[in-house]
Amino acid sequence: MKKLLFTAALLIAAAASSFAQCDKPLMLVSSATNYYNAKGELQRTKEEETIITLTKTEVIIAPRR
Predict the structure, then answer these.
(1) What is 3-43 written as a DSSP string?
(2) Cα 26 from Cα 23, distance rounded (Å)
(3) Among 23, 28, 37, 62, which residue's beta carbon has the most beta carbons within 10 A?
(4) Structural domains counted in the chain
(5) Structural domain span for residue 53
(6) Could you give the angle at the alpha carbon of 43 between the alpha carbons of 32 and 6, nearest 5°?
(7) CA distance 17 to 6
(8) pLDDT for the residue numbered 39
(9) Residues 8-46 pLDDT 10s
(10) Neighbouring C-beta atoms of residue 55, cutoff 10 Å
(11) Is 34 buried (19+), middle (13-18) or exposed (0-12) by CB count in 10 A?
(12) For residues 34 and 52, is the Cβ–Cβ distance under 8 A?
């Protein structure tokens, strides 16, 4: 359920920002990273800051260094 809500929030944020600023990247920061397997089961959670960058052509998910 949390995964679904997070995904929905991410898509809404991306859609809202793309209408206003389609040529500018959008950066989101999270405090934890959840790793899921192909079946959608949670494998592990790592407490780390992760940066999600959305541009017109790509989505980049990387840990903050």
Answers:
(1) HHHHHHHHHHHHHHHHHH-TTS-EEEEEEEEEEE-TTS-EE
(2) 10
(3) 28
(4) 1
(5) 2-63
(6) 45
(7) 16
(8) 92
(9) 777 777 776 666 566 788 899 988 888 899 999 999 998
(10) 14
(11) middle
(12) no
